[in-house]
C-alpha cells in the first residue's frame, strides 16, 4: 500500500506541477491580452488627441489667413491716407488763396489758373475716395464734426450746424479730419 500511496503521491505532485504550469501559461496569455487592450486604448486616445490638435491648428491657420486677407484689403483701401492727410493743409491754403478778389487783370488770370489747378486737385482726391463732410444746416454728429463754438441763432434748431470754420474730409468710410463747426445751442 505504501507503494501505491507513493505512486499516487507522485502522480498527484506531477498533476499539481502541470496544473501550476498551465495556470502560469494561462495567466501570461491573459496578461498579454490585457496589455494589448490597454495599449490599443492608449493608441486610440493618442489618435483622438492628435486629431483634435490638427483640427485646432487648422482653425488657427484659417483664422490667420482670414485676418491677413482683411489686413491686406484695409491696407489697399486706405493706402493713400497718410499722403492725403498731409495734403489737407495745402487744400486749406489753396481755398484761402482763391478767396482773394484781385483788381489787376494779370492777377485775375493767375487766379483762373489756380482755380483750374484746384479743381483738378479736387477731382484727383475724389477719384481716391476723398469726400468733403457736409456741414451747414446738418445736425451735429460728433463722429463727423468738431464743435468749437455754440451760438444762439434764429432759424436753426438746437444742435444744428450754423457755420463751418474748417472743412472736414472722409476717405471712403473713415474720417480723415472732422469739420470744425459752430453749433446752435
TrEMBL record:
PROSITE patterns: GRPE. Its main location: cytoplasm. Keywords: Chaperone, Coiled coil, Cytoplasm, Stress response. Residues 1-31 are annotated as: Disordered. It is found in: Cytoplasm. Residues 22-31 have a biased composition (Acidic residues). InterPro entries: GrpE, GrpE_CC, GrpE_head. It comes from the Bacteria. Residues 38-67 form a coiled coil. The keyword Coiled coil applies. Residues 1-21 have a biased composition (Basic and acidic residues). PANTHER family: GRPE PROTEIN, GRPE PROTEIN HOMOLOG, MITOCHONDRIAL. Homodimer. Belongs to the GrpE family. Participates actively in the response to hyperosmotic and heat shock by preventing the aggregation of stress-denatured proteins, in association with DnaK and GrpE. It is the nucleotide exchange factor for DnaK and may function as a thermosensor. Unfolded proteins bind initially to DnaJ; upon interaction with the DnaJ-bound protein, DnaK hydrolyzes its bound ATP, resulting in the formation of a stable complex. GrpE releases ADP from DnaK; ATP binding to DnaK triggers the release of the substrate protein, thus completing the reaction cycle. This is Protein GrpE.
